[in-house]
Each structure stands twice: as structure tokens, then as C-alpha cells.
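TASK: fixed-backbone design
INPUT:
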């Protein structure tokens, strides 16, 4: 199902981005979603929730590492550690080290990594930065609609929680309506979230909340929505059904290279914008001089 490349078809909730800290394949997951960044819609609320909860989530993911045996694999999150300790980054500690030193080395690496998370300089935050740099602010109307949704008790979101999921859903509905007007071809959307407010899971499948589906259908009755609680599974389905290449084999070196390319592209775009502004300023100055003459 090849569709217009300018459409945004994937929405990933903050809890899924945060879940990358505890994934068995974190680098591959970041690389996969970044490889289709032009297809991903990021509400500003998602970015804010990620930043707000990143340190707590990373700390929880690293919490069990010190408790593992000296020769046990440390799990996928070892690749997220900010350390030059090659034995740690290989995921295995030498059996000759006593337990106290084992714990101390991991503890130092975890502390350094959490400091990087605070500054937004860890692998996950930097890896997702091309997405978060494109985050879209909610409009006053979307904020108002989200508040009404919360007051009425409509999903998603919980009454006791601050405004969050409600705002994400309102922005998503706006996106669906706008793209229904702009693009004539049939559309499909992928919603990837682990928040049970959005769906019910049964027999290995996820089913969108009926009230949310009704709103989605009202926004665009020609569109399809597919819901997943796994980032990789959702992106694999997107690849298979949308016919878009998704890179599931990116390693840390390739990810850093992709991020450098993205930053260079953004720098060139900014330079181009500055040049256009300078040309416009000169043109305005010339017109003012002509008027004064």
C-alpha cells in the first residue's frame, strides 16, 4: 500500500519511547524508528513526557544490573551505558573479578549514564532527537478539547493524572482530519502505545477502544488504524503493509552516522533559511531607500 511520502502515518506514545531503556535490542529499536522519521508524527506532549520520565525510567532499567552474577550477561541495556569499560560494553564481566568490584564498576557506569540522561546526552535521547526536534505544539483548540475530554471521563487518560494522553489523541485526530482533506488516496495509520487506555489485548491482538475508534472514523471514515503495543512489531507491520523500508539492523556506529547526517542536513537547512532572510532584509532595505528617494 504505497502512499504519499509527505503523510505522517505513525504515532508512538511516550511510554513506548521510554520503554527503549529496558529493551533487549535498544539500538536496533532506535535505528528502526529513526529510519522512518519522516513518517512519524510527534506531539510535543510526547516529547515532554519522555524528558520528564527519562531519568526515572533509565534508573529502573539499570537497577538490576549490579545484582547479576560476575559472568552473567548484563542484558540489552548494557549497550546504553556511557562507559569506556570494554568488558561492560561487551555485556560480560570476567569471572576473575570479585563481586564487590563487579558491582562497583557497574555502579560507576550507571551513575555516569544517568548524569548523561539528565543532560539529554545519553544514547536513547540523542538517538531519538531527530524525532523530538520535529515535535508539534498543541493548538489552543486542541488543549481545550483535551480538557473537556478529561472532564467528561472519555479515554484516553486517567482523571487523577495531569493532561497528557488526552492531548496526544486530540492532536492525532487533528492530523487525521487535515490529511483527509489534503490527500485523496486511502490512508492507514499506526498507533504504537503500551497504555491500556487505548486498547484491549486478546489472543495476541490489540483492539482499539470502541469510543476512540468512533472518533477516529468520524475524523476520516476512509482511513484504517492499526494498533500495536510493541515498537518493533508495529514498525514491522508498517514495513509490510505500507511498503516502506525500515532499517532493523542498525548498530551503534551506523546510528551515530545517521544522526551526524541528520544534524548536517538540519544545519544546511538553517543556513539556507538564514541566507533567504538576509536576502529579504536587503530587499526591504532597497525598497525603503527607493521610497525615501
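OUTPUT:
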Amino acid at each position: 500500500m504505497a502512499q504519499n511520502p509527505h503523510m505522517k502515518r505513525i504515532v508512538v506514545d511516550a511510554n513506548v519511547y521510554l520503554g527503549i531503556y529496558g529493551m533487549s535490542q535498544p539500538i536496533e529499536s532506535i535505528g528502526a524508528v529513526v529510519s522512518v522519521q519522516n513518517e512519524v508524527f510527534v506531539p510535543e506532549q510526547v516529547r515532554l513526557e519522555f524528558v520528564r520520565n527519562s531519568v526515572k525510567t533509565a534508573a529502573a532499567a539499570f537497577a538490576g544490573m549490579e545484582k547479576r552474577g560476575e559472568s552473567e550477561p548484563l542484558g540489552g541495556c548494557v549497550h546504553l551505558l556511557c562507559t569506556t569499560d570494554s568488558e561492560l560494553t561487551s555485556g560480560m564481566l570476567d569471572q576473575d573479578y570479585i563481586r564487590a568490584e563487579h558491582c562497583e564498576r557497574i555502579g560507576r557506569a550507571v551513575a555516569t549514564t544517568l548524569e548523561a540522561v539528565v543532560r539529554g546526552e545519553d544514547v536513547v535521547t540523542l538517538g531519538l532527537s531527530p524525532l523530538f526536534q520535529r515535535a508539534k505544539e498543541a493548538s489552543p483548540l486542541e488543549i481545550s478539547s483535551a480538557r473537556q475530554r478529561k472532564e467528561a471521563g472519555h479515554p484516553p487518560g486517567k482523571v487523577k493524572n495531569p493532561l497528557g494522553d488526552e492531548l496526544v489523541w486530540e492532536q492525532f485526530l487533528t492530523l487525521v482530519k487535515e490529511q483527509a482533506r489534503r490527500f485523496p488516496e486511502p490512508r492507514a495509520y499506526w498507533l504504537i502505545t503500551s497504555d491500556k487506555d487505548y486498547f484491549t489485548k486478546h489472543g495476541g491482538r490489540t483492539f482499539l477502544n470502541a469510543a476512540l475508534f468512533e472518533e477516529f472514523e468520524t475524523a476520516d471514515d476512509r482511513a484504517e488504524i492499526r494498533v500495536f503495543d510493541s515498537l518493533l512489531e508495529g514498525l514491522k507491520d508498517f514495513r509490510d503493509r505500507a511498503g516502506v523500508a525500515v532499517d532493523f539492523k542498525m548498530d551503534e556506529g551506523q546510528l551515530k552516522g545517521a544522526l551526524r547526517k541528520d544534524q548536517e542536513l538540519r544545519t544546511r537547512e538553517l543556513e539556507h533559511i538564514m541566507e533567504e532572510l538576509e536576502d529579504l532584509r536587503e530587499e526591504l532595505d532597497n525598497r525603503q531607500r527607493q521610497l525615501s528617494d
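COMMENT: Residues 93-98 have pLDDT under 50 and may be disordered.
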